[in-house]
Amino acid sequence: MRTLTTLTCTALALVSAACATRxxxxxxxxxxxxxxxxxxxxxxxxxxxxxxxxxSREPQLQxxxxxTRAASPDLAGSATVAVTLAADGNVLDAGIIRRSWFGxxxxxxxxxxxxRVRSWRFPANQLxxxxxxxSFAVVFTR
Length: 142
Hints:
The chain has helices spanning 17-21, 47-56, 58-69, 106-119, and strands at 4-16, 76-85, 91-102, 132-141. The protein is of the alpha+beta class. A hairpin with a 5-residue loop joins strand 2 (76-85) and strand 3. Helix 3 (58-69) packs antiparallel against helix 4.
């Protein structure tokens, strides 16, 4: 069966800059991504541009999976990547906030995904001059 890689851009705004600067919501760092973040009350900020940008870089993300799968043919799964963006589009931080993997090698795929995302420069934020945290899901199937 041919490898099918699907990129699903959910472009969810997980934490707005206003939340990140409030005392009850400390600044988010990649090591802190986890159950504390919730998409239950999320709003989408600029999701069409964000989604289009991520989809245009899908081959870079596919490479991460294909490269690792060569050594681990049973590897399949998904990861949701949260990206902290400055107003100018620079990536301030990125981390995996949700994952579901089968087979060995997921840590290598995730490291590669994060390295790629951290090197990107997204379109400038047209809504305001604040930091945004957005996310997208990547699904890799055999």
